[in-house]
Specification:
Blueprint: H1 11-23, H2 26-33, H3 37-51, E1 56-59, E2 62-65, H4 67-91, E3 96-103, H5 104-111, H6 115-121, E4 125-132, H7 137-140, E5 145-150, E6 157-171, H8 173-176, E7 187-190, H9 197-204, E8 214-216, H10 219-227, E9 232-236, H11 241-246, E10 250-251, E11 257-268, H12 274-284
Parallel strand pairs: 3-4, 3-5, 7-8, 7-9
Antiparallel strand pairs: 1-2, 5-11, 6-9, 6-10, 6-11
Helix pairs in contact: 1-2, 1-3, 1-4, 2-3, 6-12
Amino acid sequence: MAESTALLPSLEWVRVFEAAARLGSFTAAARELGLTQAAVSQRIRHLEERLGVSLFERQARGVTLSLQGEAWLPHVQQALERLTHSADSLFAAPRTRLSLMASVSLIELWIVPRLAELQAVLPRRQLLLSTMHRWPDYAQAEADLDIRFGEGDWPERDSQRLFGEVLAPMATPALLATVPDWRQLPRIAVAGPRLGWREWDQQCEEAPGPMPVVRLDSLVQALRAAEAGAGVLLGSLPLCASALASGRLHRASQETLPMAEGYWLTRCLDRPAGREFEQVLAALRHEG
């Protein structure tokens, strides 16, 4: 063991060498490490004496790495990085979990595009996303937070509105170009509590339109069908914003069908509020 560690230099000297080599200056390294320039020079000299090589070429206008210094630097940086990573993994404060429940469409179309914002406001939290498949799932779940569709009046829950729901017909540009009037296109319907084509016809059309050719369980499934050219979708403008902005879908009409209901971030009043509720609310309200 003594022989294997005979040349092992002080970690402080190695850290000073890495900073000086990376910054190309003893003065800059001293500034970064909170040392004097003389202290940096002393540590580098001790390191060179221990290794028996010159790590820097001293010049009138500064220092440059020697061939030996250039060869050693990547090994030093890798070793320091591994030390830092292992210390963080073993000794950093453990992440606590925050569970968030929502429908599959909300998770894919609204939450996932805002994960970076959520991670930024919850740096020490592990976020667990779970899918609500049926509306009764909410009553049985024990998620810290959930996103619900409705008017925000759930008993014993604190509810904060995320965004309202507005529907409009949309389809691929290629499909819209096949007919002179988009109303001739096949319709895609979505199961669930949203308004649908019947309400659209009552508001905007003189007579009922054709029956939908396909009905899907979730908005995200219906959106993918519309993007594949299967028909025209009465889609959510907030949730389909990316498809519209990218041009994958175009609005078939400027008419809209607004809903009284919207999407709400909720929590059980029996649990402590904490700062996380407001932080998650702000992140999920981000326009993306």
